[in-house]
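re: ur question from yesterday

yeah so i grabbed the chain u mentioned. its 192 aa long if i counted rite. heres the sequnce exactly as i have it in my notes:
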Amino acid sequence: AHLPGLSRIGDGLRALPSLFVAVPVFWLGIVLIQVFSFQLGLVSVVNPGPVEGLILPVLTLAAPISAPLAQILIRSIDSVRRQPFVTVVRARGASEWWLLSRNIARNAVLPTLTMAGVLFGELIGGAVVTETVFGRAGIGRLAEQAVSNQDTPVLLAVVIVSAAAFVLINLIVDLLYPVLDPRLARSTGARS
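ran it thru and got these C-alpha cells back, copy pasting raw so excuse formatting
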C-alpha cells in the first residue's frame, strides 16, 4: 500500500521540472548569486578560482536544460513500467532495484537521450545570457560582441563551431542507441 505522504512528495517532485522549465535563465543566475554567494558565502563571485567560477554558471545553464529531460525521463519510466515485459520480469522474482536499473532505465533513457542531443542547441543560446550575468568570457559573449560590432567572420566562426558541436553531439547520441538497446544493434546488423 502507498502512504499518502509519499505520494504527495512524489507529486511535488514530479512538478519540479515544470517549475524549472518556466524559470528564466537570467533570473535563476541572479538568484543563485544572491543565495550561494552573498547569503551563504559558499561560492565567491568576486575573483573566484578557475573551478569555483564555473559552479554557478554551470548550475544556471543546467537547470533549464535538465528540467525537460527530467520530464521526459519520468514519463518514459512510467510508460515502460506499464509494458508487459516488466510484469514478466517481476514475476520471475526480480527485485524492484534490478527491474529499474536493468530493464526499465535502459528502455526509458532512449527518448531522454534523443532530447538531450536536441537541447544542446539551447545551451548555446543560454550561454549568452549566463556569461553576461556572471561576467564570464566565452563563446556566448563572443557571439554577442560579434553581433554588436557587426564582425561577420567571427560570428560565422561561432556559428560553424556551434553547428559542428551540435552535429557531433547528435552523432554520439545516435551511436549510443545500439549500446543501450541491443534490439537496435540486431536490427541494424540484420539489414547490412
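noticed a couple things. The CA atoms of residues 85 and 91 lie 10 Å apart. also The radius of gyration is 21 Å.
anyway ttyl
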